[in-house]
Amino acid sequence: MAEQEIFTQLATYDHEQIVFCNDNATGLKAIIAIHNTVLGPGLGGTRVWNYATEAEAINDVMRLSRGMTYKAAISGLNLGGAKAVIIGDATKIKTEALMRKFGRFVENLNGKYITAEDVNTTTKDMEYVNMETSHVVGLPESMGGGGDPSPVTAYGVYMGMKASAKQVFGNDSLAGKKVAVQGVGKVGGHLLDFLHKEGAELFISDINADTLAHYASRVGAKVVNGEEIYGLDVDVFAPCALGAILNDEHIAQLKCSIVAGAANNQLADETIHGPALMNKGIVYAPDFLINAGGLINVYQEHIGYNRETAQRKAEHIYDVTLEILKISASEKIYTQKAAMNLAEKRIQDISKVKSTY
Ligand code: NAD
Question: For residue 184, how far is its CA from the centre of ligand 1 (angstroms)?
């Protein structure tokens, strides 16, 4: 890719810095993208992916790092947005040496970038990274880290769902409400427990039959087959598996009043499908806001871990969701846009605070 094209990409969404890391000895080829550090150091996980082209890897890391800026800003955290990708097949390239070498590149950024787990990286990988740098979060509890963030993520999603219910039904009780959860993995599973405790009627789908059987018996959820989940006559649809599922085809099938789930990047195209949901009268709780519990959890690790504090901070997702839904209704803009505007406003306001010593 020509130099000009990379700088054009950096300028498009105002990225601050992009770092290419190469090491022949370990085979490391990594890209660290730092989108915005007005609010604090850029935090975002490291993804290992076998990208077909380098351009694809650059595009992904730029898009994901920008998403982290919005997530941190809307959650009221003093964090910026960044992300890293390591290019290659995770089953073949990951070694202690490669992860430690990557850790040294992170260390060289002197804390401007803080890394964490992401797709195809594990807590064990972060332990290797941590041997070379302290700028890493998502460490196991035995090492002073926060451990699995999924319970906090699920709690934030639950808060976002309740706030959406308040906006749509006039009160935030989910007792007796029908909720369909797509994907009952780490987050979806904890979410089911919260919903069951409150007395919601539950429907679940997953590609893993064992998980489905487990939750069907644990919380009395009704199992539905794959695609059927979109057209169910329910109050709430909670996507907790895949991104980009809110597309033309699926939105046409939806009968729910609320979409509120954990999956990242649920809108296939935010400028088309954000308005499409609004026009159909469906309230969409922005994913990057209500699934921020995981980020809140690792931020807590950065400043001194305490699970209760992380959970309490995730509770704040309720108030922010309600504020965004109100702005969306009064200004007639789709909820994702309202959330992005609020995040951008916080960054602008705080940049002015920092304009004096
Ligand atoms: P997970 O892998 O534990 O769970 C995902 C579940 O979805 C699995 O049970 C899987 O079998 C199921 N699934 C996969 N394809 C499916 C399909 N086509 N239909 C139905 N089910 C399918 O992952 P997780 O940690 O629970 O995360 C769920 C989503 O939330 C992901 O999109 C993730 O990026 C996002 N998220 C997670 C966290 C977190 O703290 N774990 C934080 C923010 C966002």
Answer: 7
Tell me if the pTM is above 0.85. Answer: yes
Looking at CATH, the fold of the domain delimited by 15-66+80-138 is given as Rossmann fold (3.40.50)
pLDDT higher than threshold 80 for residue 76 = yes
CA distances from 188 to 88, 260, 313, 326 (A): 29, 12, 20, 27
**pLDDT tens digits for 302-314?**
998 999 999 999 9
The finding on whether 266 has its CB within 6 A of some atom of ligand 1 is no
pLDDT tens column, 113-133: 999 999 999 999 999 999 999
Second CATH level (architecture) for the domain 150-345:
3-Layer(aba) Sandwich (3.40)
**Which residue, by CA, sits nearest to atom 19 of ligand 1?**
206
- Any catalytic annotation for residue 83? yes
Q: Choose, from 29, 83, 112, 177, the residue flagged as catalytic.
A: 83
Question: d(Cα 255, Cα 35) in Å, to the nearest integer?
Answer: 37
**Domain map of the chain by residue range?**
15-66+80-138, 150-345
Same fold flag, 15-66+80-138 and 150-345: yes
Q: Do 327 and 286 touch, CB atoms closer than 8 A? A: no
Share the mean pLDDT of the chain.
96
161 lines ligand 1 (CB under 6 A): no
From the CA of 267, how far away is ligand 1's center (Å)?
16
Indicate the top mutation candidate among 205, 215, 228, 240 to test ligand 1's pocket, ranked by most ligand atoms within 8 A of CB: 240
Using CA atoms, how far apart are residues 101 and 22, in angstroms rounded to an integer? 9
Q: Are 174 and 198 in contact (CB under 8 A)?
A: yes
